[in-house]
Amino acid sequence: MQNEKILKLAESIFEEILKVDNKYSRRILKTKIEKRSIDFERHINNIKESFQYEEPKLLIPVVEELEKIKNEISILSNGLDKPFLLFIVGVGNYGKSTLLNALIEKRMAEIDALPKTWKIDIFQEREKHSLVEIKYKKGNIDHFNIKEAKVFLDKEEEKRQISEMKVYKEFEKRKNNLDTIKEKEELKKALEKNLLYESKVIEVNWPVDSNDLLKNFRLVDTPGLVQNLLGEVKQNVNDYYHKADGVLWLLDATKISANQSKEMLNKLNKALKEVGGRTDNIIAVLNRIDLIRKNGGETAVNEVLDNAEKIFGSIFKKIIPISAKEALDGIENDDIDLIEQSGIKRLKRSIKNKFFNKAKEIQVESKKTGFKQISNNLNKYISKYENRLNKDNSKRIQLKDDFNNELKDIKKELNQIKSSFLNDYKRKIKNNIESKAKKLILEDDSSVQKFILKNYILEEKYFSHQVKKLEKNINDKLKRFSKFHKKRSRFQEFEHLGNKEIFNEIKGEIKINFNSDFSDNKFNVGISLTFASTILFGPMGLVLGGIASYLGLADWIFIKWKLPKIKKELKDKLINSVSEIDNKIDKQIKSNIKKIEAEVNDIRRSSFSLLHGSPDNVELISKELSNIKELLNANLNAITIKEIILKDKIYGGKYEL
């Protein structure tokens, strides 16, 4: 007798300890999640401040995703204070909405309608008001009456469907202009990003009349695990599955086949892997059993159930056969026998046995698992962006180094071209002075002297022609250099689309032209062609005065009549003139190269900024993203009552989170 009392007392104390353990575990877990949410927001704001005056195309979606996840983390925390979330999930449309209607005992969820791929519907016990609560990605909330909510959501779905069709048509129209699979994949992504309507709605809470199930559970109708657009899976189940405390996983009884067991198992494992692989909070529901019974009676039902247990028994501990259609029909027609036959009562008992008695414990584990799932998914998302950011930033640095090195090469090359031209011309004119200067002295006619000087010594036409060739050669090289580096320095969101006529690209090409000093009619030895006609020192004075004027030497006076002196003076002035030409060409080349350098650097920097924000903030962004990943990966396990007692930190003690 005494032993029985002690045993009962021990059991009573143990139950109280479990209650306290659960209470404090939930409280501490909630506090930890809330603290993570606050730290999370701080890091997001630091990233946003880095591009407050820009709209980087690749970084903004990352920030939007971070803000959405921050909201999801808050929802996880708040979920600890709300009734158990029971999700209805399936690989296809196997009667999820029909089952949900049967469980809430009212036709609320749409049947035979295509599942909305952009939201989940939560059905919960009606409170004081009967308004529908619509939640958005950023955490803001609207309230509508049921009729208004349906109209609003129908319009959202219509926008989505219209945009999907537009994406499809545009893809079909443009795909044949692309050559590679990569280009076509990027075209899909580009069209979806620019044309596909994405509703900001993520969750709709519908108030329904209470029943035994809804007093303790909130029921969730989800999109199918596979939704297609252009042949690709569009709905990411991880966008919502982490919220689930428990799951009813629907299987289609009409699809169960021993001959396809491996294929069915692989399909299920793939779907489970998508949602984290956890099965301890799942009840398997074999729906549409009425169709099996109709065609083969109870023998066929038992055979299908045996096959289902053989195929899925290693994953699900128990599989409940039901007919959601019979259950709903029986409820609506008050047919007790049909309700009993449907298996819905057995399913409700399984829900109560598996989830109700340990709902609070399961919720704590589910929220920790949900947080881990959010963390894993976000880590992958962040890592994908980090890879692109690091790749683009490394490319930007390498492009800058390559450009600077090639800039030195082009300067050297143009200098060699210029020097070669001037040296050849200087050598040629010197030879002309040696062989033809005497003619100037022998001629008395000033017009003849000018002709000799222009055509036989300075070779004006030849020089003009060669200057044009030089100008074209330098111009072409600078244009090719500029075009190559501008194209190469441009960063694009969709790398494989290249220059396809799909989107507006960064444009701009410098047309390299010499200034007026290098125009065709003034590029002759770098000075204007003027001739003196009034300097008369006798016949020879007129000739040499003409030469002096031609070379721009107004103060030059011929003193001695000896030919060597004339040759020397002409050669000296030739050297000075060539030096002047050299300086002018060099100045103009430098000016144009400086212009090219500025524009290439601007394209490289601005196109990078269009994707990621200023290059100056790459380190800051990388650091904040790393901080977020570290924050998510930190241990979230709630402290147990045993640990609190052992550490002497219960109640009045301090516990560091």
Report on the structure:
By secondary structure, the protein is α/β, with parallel strands linked by helices. The protein folds into two domains: 82-357, P-loop containing nucleotide triphosphate hydrolases (Rossmann fold, 3-Layer(aba) Sandwich), CATH 3.40.50; 390-613. Helices cover 61% and strands 8% of the residues. β10 (282-287), α7 (289-312) and β11 form a beta-alpha-beta unit. The radius of gyration is 42 Å and the shape is elongated. The two termini are 46 Å apart. Mean pLDDT is 78; it is low at 226-235, 501-561 and 646-657.
> Biggest sheet: strands side by side, in what order?
4-3-5-2-6-1-9-10-11
- Share of β-strand residues: 5-15%
- CATH top-level class of the largest domain: Alpha Beta
Structural domains: how many: 2
Report the span from N to C terminus: 46 Å
Let me know the CATH homologous superfamily of the largest domain: P-loop containing nucleotide triphosphate hydrolases
Number of helical segments with 4 or more residues: 17
Instruction: Tell me the radius of gyration.
Output: 42 Å
Model regions low in confidence, pLDDT < 50 over at least 5 residues: 226-235, 501-561, 646-657
Described by strand count, sense and barrel closure, the largest sheet is:
9 strands, mixed
The SSE string, one letter per element, is HHEHEEEHHEEEEEHEHEHHHHHHHHHH
Instruction: Count all strands and give the number.
Output: 11
Counting helices, strands and paired strands, the structural category is alpha/beta
- CATH topology call of the largest domain: Rossmann fold
Helix content: 55-70%
Mean of all residue-level pLDDT scores: 78
Which CATH architecture of the largest domain?
Answer: 3-Layer(aba) Sandwich
Structural shape: elongated
